[in-house]
Amino acid sequence: MESEGQSRAETSRSSERRPRVRRNVTAAIAQDICADRYPSGSPLPRENDLCELYGVSRTVIRESLKVLESKGLVRGKPRVGTTVCDRDEWNILDAEVLDWMGPYIKDFDLLGCILEARRTIEPAAAEYAAERASAQEIADLDKAWRQMRDSAGEPESFTDADVMFHTVLLTASHNQVFRRLSSAIHAALKYALHASNIAVENREDAVLVHGQLVEALRMRDKTGARECANRMLDLAVRDLAAAEKVIGRTK
Asked: Where is this region: Disordered (predicted)?
């Protein structure tokens, strides 16, 4: 009985280790791709060479390449090998892809692209939410705003609350496309807001305008809601400039 229990424990420990190893190797290969060690259009080294480079088995390399292919970073073909895909094919809204791109994100101009997308979507979503949001959704927005207010001095907590606010806002528009977008851009929005929030010293303006948007929704003021969304995005432009300076200094 003891040996069976020991065997199960060893199997459990082994199964816990394998995914962790795979994720680390996957991230290492992905970050090398993002750093242009393996440029777009170029072939990756052969499996045996990758095993030697990253110090793992062929099984781990194959699992890692499957993950990278599912996220659009590489493409494997029989008798050809694995090739790095063009950046336009990468799933840049994937949370892991964003993490891998992190140190090089300024090279991708991704923060600016996210802001452009928000400029298009959020004012309309705010206007629709003023008309369609349920009492519970407004309460959820108010809760997220209060968390922002109470954690203005803590960038990590502030960002979590900020992301929740914008996610609920898109959902509260009761537009099915916007609802889908809220889940799709969640990871990208978190990265963009975090970059902005750690770059600015004073978040009082952001707290104020988010609170005013909640009040506009309570009053069912569509024009006021759209105006608040546009003002939030004006602040985002300012904060993005600050974030890019920080990224430039730390790169």
From this structure: 1-21
Phi, psi of 43 (to 5 degrees): -80, 145
Domain that holds residue 202: 93-247
* Digit-coded pLDDT (tens) for 207-235: 999 999 999 999 999 999 999 999 999 99
Buried b (16+ CB within 10 A) or exposed e, 150-164: ebbeebeebbbbbbb
Instruction: Tell me, yes or no, whether 158 and 188 share the same domain.
Output: yes
Which residues in 17-27 are b (16+ Cβ under 10 Å) and which e? eeeebbeebbb
- Maximum distance among all alpha carbons in the chain? 71
> What pLDDT, in 10s, does the model give residues 24-69?
999 999 999 999 999 999 999 999 999 999 999 999 999 999 999 9
Helix, strand, coil in percent for the chain, rounding step 5: 80, 5, 20
Distance CA 237, CA 222 (A): 23
Amino acid letter, residue 148: M
How far, in Å, CA of 88 to CA of 59, rounded? 28
DSSP, collapsed to helix, strand or coil, labels residue 43 as strand
Report the predicted TM-score, pTM, of the whole model to 2 decimal places.
0.73
Residue written as tokens 């892809």?
Answer: 97
Domain boundary among 37, 52, 87: 87
